Amino acid sequence: MPTVGVKRDLLFKALGKVYSDDEFQNLCFAFGLELDDITNEKEMISKEQGVEESTGASNEIIYKIDIPANRYDLLCLEGIVNGLQIFLEKIPAPRYKAIVPKSPSKMEKIIVTNTPKNIRPFVVGAVLRGVELTQESYTSFIDLQDKLHQNICRKRSLVSVGTHDLDTIKGPFTYDAKPPNDIKFVPLNQDKEFTGLGVMELYSNHAQLKQYLPIIRDSPIYPVVYDSNGTILSLPPIINSDHSKITLNTKNIFIEATATDLTKAKVVLDTIVCAFSQYCKEKYTVEAVEVIYEETKETFQYPELKYRINEIDSNDAVNYIGIKCTSDKVAELLSKMCLQTKVLENNKLQVEIPPTRHDVIHACDIYEDIAIAWGYNNIEKTIPKTSTVGKEFPLNKLTDHLRNELAQSGFTEALTFSLCSKEDISEKLGWSFDSIPAVTISNPKTLEFQVARTCLLSGLLKTLGANKKMPLPLKLFEVSDVVIKDENTECGAKNERRLCAVYSNKSAGFEIIHGLLDRVMQLLEIPWSLDKKNGYYLLAEDDPTYFPQRCAKIMLNGNVIGKMGVLHPDVIHKFDLHLPCSALEITIEPFL
């Protein structure tokens, strides 16, 4: 959870009331927040820098408030104050709107060339007109950007925000990408001009900015935003230009956000302009910016500031939460959480979701806000109508019994990674990846964790490879879940509990694995099937993972539950093994 530090006196002044520490802590809890710590600037600096005293730091009390990770609208003083005042019913929820200048020629434009599409393809923008900033609101404005960069922007890898004094630059603006040596500008708070490569060198040891350099450093071109005079505004996602920096005297703020994720960029832009449009000459009003893509000729206007409508059933909501409440009261509770609600017929509620609440995605998010506004401590504790005895989940209970018995059979349990590379479940086992129903990770951190495993065998073979120096024979097993694509499920995939065992020695030891299968079936009281109808039996199978004519399907009541056999030499070699192996893998869910 991100933590926001706000000055206590400034917060109470904005709220229009002075609270004791306990009173404010209770208010935070009622609103779904947590007052994490009460400190001052000197203590904060001494903790961070490890010094006893901090010269120049004040003794002003600072509240450190824990904010839910999905509540981007509460990551600054302005957002917290608005949320609390609406919750306390002191003010109505603001109505945000994006306006378009009467003359199309006066609308600010960002022209996107074809060049940035392979490095940072998207850009959004907005203008705050007639802004009146104080030192406190200026600091809060910068802090919000930093909080968003660390949170939803994933350290600027998804989105990076640039803010500029509009009166120092001239549109239309261009979002382009150029070779590093062709980019020359004076970075923020510097007095010397640098090239793109010079900027990388300048900030290579910077405490904060050095972590963002790898995002574009190795690219042959760097993204850049400049105005109609060729003046560079920013080198995203690294640094803005000193020429267009905002100050306390800035009256018109131009905001641009470049991104690899357009949805995240829209959320970030909405969050910033909604929080600080209250300082505009016309409160809660933002001037739209037109984004034009040269290649496709498409045009878009940002910010969107959309109000979404969601319809829920009041009876469902109160039943899920466990309270007794009328539809009118539920609508009132939601309005306290910035979700303006109208009561319709048949206990239906029409909930309007403002552009500040991008965290509301599903009906359950609305139910959560009802529970917060009602008060978790106010939910009546009741005794269940039916007396029951807690018991272990049947599949986990079966798993634990099998684990004990397999260990007593002389096999050692292994616990392998749930994620693996594509080759581990396909090429190394003799299969084509296209034929594997694997769930692929969209943005894997490393090549070792690209997909969710579809079998346990590859993990055990990698474990064997890492323990080749151990005394023979090597006997490993694992009882765990695999993930398989399934279009019939809500999320498009399902978990399946499997048992896998591997035996490695100077001989393949197929009889050991076969004996283990028989022992498992004996424990489960599954008889050998003589009529191939009831019980378990084996059928010959051709599988590229196993040696030809040394593989069998394991059948249970006429259905395939797994395979067993002697592994193919190619599979053994690809897992860096040198001794024959036999293996068994079955699903255990049919035994419940």
Automatic annotation (TrEMBL):
Keywords: Aminoacyl-tRNA synthetase, ATP-binding, Cytoplasm, Ligase, Magnesium, Metal-binding, Nucleotide-binding, Protein biosynthesis. Its main location: cytoplasm. Residues 305-381 form the B5 domain. SUPFAM superfamilies: Class II aaRS and biotin synthetases (SSF55681), PheT/TilS domain (SSF56037), Putative DNA-binding domain (SSF46955). Its cofactor is Mg(2+). GO terms for cellular component: phenylalanine-tRNA ligase complex. It holds the Pfam family B3_4. Coiled coil: none annotated. Gene3D superfamilies: 3.30.56.10, Bira Bifunctional Protein, Domain 2 (3.30.930.10), Phenylalanyl-trna Synthetase, Chain B, domain 3 (3.50.40.10). One of its GO terms (biological process) is phenylalanyl-tRNA aminoacylation. It is found in: Cytoplasm. It catalyses: tRNA(Phe) + L-phenylalanine + ATP = L-phenylalanyl-tRNA(Phe) + AMP + diphosphate + H(+). It is an enzyme of class 6 (ligase). Its EC number is 6.1.1.20. InterPro entries: aa-tRNA-synth_II/BPL/LPL, B3/B4_tRNA-bd, DNA-bd_dom_put_sf, Phe-tRNA-ligase_IIc_bsu, Phe-tRNA-synth_IIc_bsu_arc_euk, Phe-tRNA_synthase-like_B3/B4, PheRS_beta_core, PhetRS_B1. One of its GO terms (molecular function) is ATP binding. Tetramer of two alpha and two beta subunits. Belongs to the phenylalanyl-tRNA synthetase beta subunit family. Type 2 subfamily. This is Phenylalanine--tRNA ligase beta subunit. It comes from Aphidius gifuensis (Parasitoid wasp).
